[in-house]
Amino acid sequence: MTIEPEPQDAAQPVFVLVGPQMGENIGAAARAMWNFGLDRLRLVAPRDGWPNPKAEAMASGAACVLDRARVAASTAEACADLTRVYATTARDRAMTKTVMTPEAAMAEARALAAAGERVGVLFGPERAGLENADVIRANAVVSVPTNPAYGSLNLGQCVLLLAYEWQRAAGVALPGIRGADRPAAGAEVDRLVAHLVERLDAVGFFFPEARRPSMVANLENLLRRAPLTDADVRTLHGVVRALAEKVRGRK
């Protein structure tokens, strides 16, 4: 299941709040977005439900952002139609990801959105931030160079910083890879990961069983780091099918 995507009437990123805990922080995030003309907001399993009166009170003049907000049950659902996803995190992760400053990430995001890609930025819950499973879904990580002795930003601050850098990047053009094939959406990569894992399970690749979750996570992280196109995904599906048929023919 996927949420209904917003009308593509403006080249701008989707801001995805994963597991937000307080309505006030959702409202503060909406205000920060609207300060810079952004109104594409998605909420993943908000703790106190939705709609939330406290969010509406805090949003003040940015109620239009909350009115358009979409609610998803999972990060996968919220990112299913996105072709480039950035995860904001202050913690070091035991995974290989491109790490970007907010300035570099939003300059790249602007160029991609202008070329027709659907770009998203993930923000984690107030208490502990994004889980590794959420970060794996991202193509790159955004890290803010804060004071090492006190690097914690609240949700509203983090959203404000990324929205500001988005606005500041106006007019910045970056080179990119363009061709006849379109970028693969999150849901297409989901299906590729599921296909690959299914085939690998069939041949006992994930051994020992205790290591299976981390091995699956590494495979998914590898696939999401690459800027895959729809043609790439179809090719990889074909490779997986061909290898599976070869294995069956040997039995």
How does this structure look, described?
This protein is an alpha/beta fold. Helices cover 46% and strands 11% of the residues. It is built from ten helices and seven strands. It has helices spanning 23-35, 53-59, 63-68, 75-79, 102-114, 132-136, 155-168, 186-202, 212-225, 230-250, and strands at 14-18, 41-44, 70-72, 84-88, 98-100, 119-123, 140-142. A seven-stranded parallel sheet has the order 3-2-1-6-4-7-5. Strand 1 (14-18), helix 1 (23-35) and strand 2 form a beta-alpha-beta unit. Helix 1 runs parallel beside helix 2 (53-59) and helix 8 runs parallel beside helix 10. The chain starts with 13 loop residues before the first strand and ends with a helix. 38% of the residues are buried.
Which geometry do the CA atoms define? Answer: globular
Poorly predicted ranges: none
Instruction: Tell me the fraction of residues in β-strands, as a range.
Output: 5-15%
Average pLDDT metric? 90
Put simply, the count of helices is: 10
Q: What structural class do the secondary elements suggest? A: alpha/beta
The biggest sheet amounts to:
7 strands, parallel
Terminal Cα span: 37 Å
Strand order of the largest sheet: 3-2-1-6-4-7-5
> Topology as H/E string?
EHEHHEHEEHEHEHHHH
Helicity level: 40-55%
Radius of gyration (CA) equals 19 Å
| Strands, total number | 7
